[in-house]
């Protein structure tokens, strides 16, 4: 993967390239990686917005496939220089079974690793999650911690369990010999709660607010900080890691990096109001309207109802014991490891991230557009 001023030569594969984060990575790569010759976008469900990208100078190859199918993954990986493995089943609401979450997130990741080894692809970037660390089930705060901060990571929920196992597989694979004899170089990025254009949960909160006459009701104390990071900066970090992994393999191989930017430290709800407020919603209450014990009771009831109704209907409310614990436990990151190791600086300021997200929420009222979730990254 030598640096070249000649014609672009590199082939990248992005798994999950049609998801919320994946689409931003795909668009960012097309704008920021001049050495790209072909970009393979692998996803279970392909977005129609991919078509518009096919007219550019880079060959964009859409591959409909399933990461749990080893042969489909191997066919997509063969001949690529770098794999960015972002595909995953993100489910904290009980929509999918624990078995399915494990299959997609753990077995799928194992398939990607084995495909790299078998086909001789040397560079693998994995999208992990802050949840590999916490918040833990004991509700311990992680206050402005970094990659080396001691924390008791205890997982019970299928999603964080699966992300932790998958991350471990990726890190352990660093240094294994790929076909041809060269070592595999891997690393994992751990975003905190991502926000920005295309964020489904933000859309859900917005719609819920509209249903309640423009009001949302505070459920979590304002003092509980929840780490958030703008999707464009997370995408940029993936692009940069992928670019630097060859030159800095001894330093970066087998490492984990939190994804961070200049987004302010706030509670989950107060942070959402940075975007929903300018779109006409109000957050009612300076303190939670319901006492914590009542929320725990409601969350438990929801879990019970989900279990009881499962044979008849999928009941997946926003509030369950896990999401309540997530929202109610301080988990924030303060680190410069990515800057030290590969020169990362957020490409979007907080003001830009906020403006772009507000613009997207405002456009939700006009109904679904014809393109993807996010626009191009060209800056004015
Ligand atoms: N959204 C967040 O706040 C957040 C935070 C930290 C980490 N992450 C991680 O980032 C990644 C992307 O998350 P997202 O929020 O964009 O979710 P998303 O659901 O929008 O995107 C995931 C993509 O993976 C695809 N996918 C799912 N199962 C697949 C399979 N079997 N084969 C092929 N493709 C499959 C989906 O179709 C989807 O396009 C995930 O790995 C997630 O764990 C997300
Ligand atoms: C008390 C309730 C009404 C509020 C519910 C908010 C809840 C849906 C939110 C709070 C925190 C959110 C998670 C957090 O931002 C980080 C991640 C990590 C990522 O890997 C996947 C998404 C996830 C779990 C967010 C999901 C939504 C949560 C739980």
Give the SSE layout.
Blueprint: E1 10-15, H1 20-32, E2 36-43, H2 50-53, E3 59-64, H3 70-77, E4 82-85, H4 98-119, E5 123-127, E6 142-145, H5 158-173, E7 185-191, E8 193-195, H6 200-211, E9 215-217, E10 228-230, H7 231-244, H8 249-252, E11 255-259, H9 268-276, E12 282-284, H10 292-309, H11 321-328, E13 331-333, H12 337-342, H13 350-364
Parallel strand pairs: 1-2, 1-4, 2-3, 4-5, 5-7, 6-13, 7-11, 8-10, 9-12
Helix pairs in contact: 1-7, 3-4, 4-5
The structure holds nicotinamide-adenine-dinucleotide and 7alpha-hydroxycholesterol.
Features:
alpha/beta; 380 residues; 13 helices; binds 7alpha-hydroxycholesterol; 16% strand
Description:
With 380 residues, the protein is α/β, with parallel strands linked by helices. 39% of the residues lie in helices and 16% in strands. The protein has helices at residues 20-32, 50-53, 70-77, 98-119, 158-173, 200-211, 231-244, 249-252, 268-276, 292-309, 321-328, 337-342, 350-364; strands spanning 10-15, 36-43, 59-64, 82-85, 123-127, 142-145, 185-191, 193-195, 215-217, 228-230, 255-259, 282-284, 331-333. A 7-stranded parallel β-sheet has the order 3-2-1-4-5-7-11, with helices on both faces. A two-stranded parallel ribbon has the order 6-13. Strands 8-10 form a two-stranded parallel ribbon. Helix 2 links the parallel strand 2 and strand 3 (59-64). Helix 3 (70-77) packs across helix 4 (98-119). The longest helix has 22 residues, at 98-119. The radius of gyration is 21 Å and the shape is globular. The mean pLDDT is 94. The structure holds nicotinamide-adenine-dinucleotide and 7alpha-hydroxycholesterol. Nicotinamide-adenine-dinucleotide binds at residues 16, 18-22, 43-45, 66-68, 86-90, 104, 108, 127, 129, 163, 191, 193-194.
């Amino acid at each position: 993967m030598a640096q070249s001023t000649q014609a672009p030569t590199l082939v990248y594969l992005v798994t999950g390239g049609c998801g919320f984060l994946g689409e931003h990575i795909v668009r960012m790569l097309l704008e920021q990686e001049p050495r790209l010759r072909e970009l393979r976008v692998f996803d279970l469900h392909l977005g129609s917005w991919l078509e518009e990208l096919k007219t550019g100078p880079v060959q964009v190859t859409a591959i409909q496939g399933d990461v749990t199918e080893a042969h489909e993954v191997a066919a997509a990986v063969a001949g690529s220089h770098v794999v960015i493995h972002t595909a995953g089943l993100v489910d904290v609401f009980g929509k999918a079974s624990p078995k399915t979450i494990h299959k997609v997130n753990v077995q799928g990741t194992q398939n990607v690793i084995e495909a790299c080894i078998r086909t001789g692809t040397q560079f693998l970037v994995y999208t992990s999650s802050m949840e590999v660390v916490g918040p833990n089930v004991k509700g311990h705060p992680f206050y402005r911690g970094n990659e080396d901060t001691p924390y008791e990571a205890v997982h019970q929920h299928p999603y964080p369990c699966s992300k932790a196992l998958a991350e471990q597989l990726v890190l352990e694979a660093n240094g294994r010999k790929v076909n041809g004899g060269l070592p595999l170089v891997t690393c994992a990025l751990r975003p905190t709660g991502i926000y920005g254009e295309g964020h489904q949960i933000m859309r859900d909160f917005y719609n819920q607010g509209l249903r309640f006459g423009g009001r949302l009701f505070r459920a979590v104390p304002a003092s509980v900080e929840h780490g958030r990071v703008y999707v464009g900066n997370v995408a940029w970090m993936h692009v940069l890691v992928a670019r630097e992994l060859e030159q800095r393999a001894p330093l970066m191989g087998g490492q984990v990096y939190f994804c961070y930017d200049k987004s302010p430290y706030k509670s989950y709800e107060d942070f959402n109001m940075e975007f929903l407020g300018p779109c006409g919603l109000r957050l009612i209450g300076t303190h939670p309207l319901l006492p914590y014990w009542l929320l725990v009771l409601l969350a438990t009831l929801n879990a019970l109802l989900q279990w009881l109704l499962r044979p008849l209907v999928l009941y997946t409310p926003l509030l369950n014991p896990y999401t309540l614990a997530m929202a109610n436990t301080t988990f924030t990151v303060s680190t410069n490891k990515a800057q030290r190791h590969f020169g990362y600086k957020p490409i979007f300021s907080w003001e830009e991230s906020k403006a772009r997200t507000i613009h997207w929420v405002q456009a939700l009222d006009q109904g679904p557009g014809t393109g993807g979730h996010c626009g191009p990254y060209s800056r004015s």
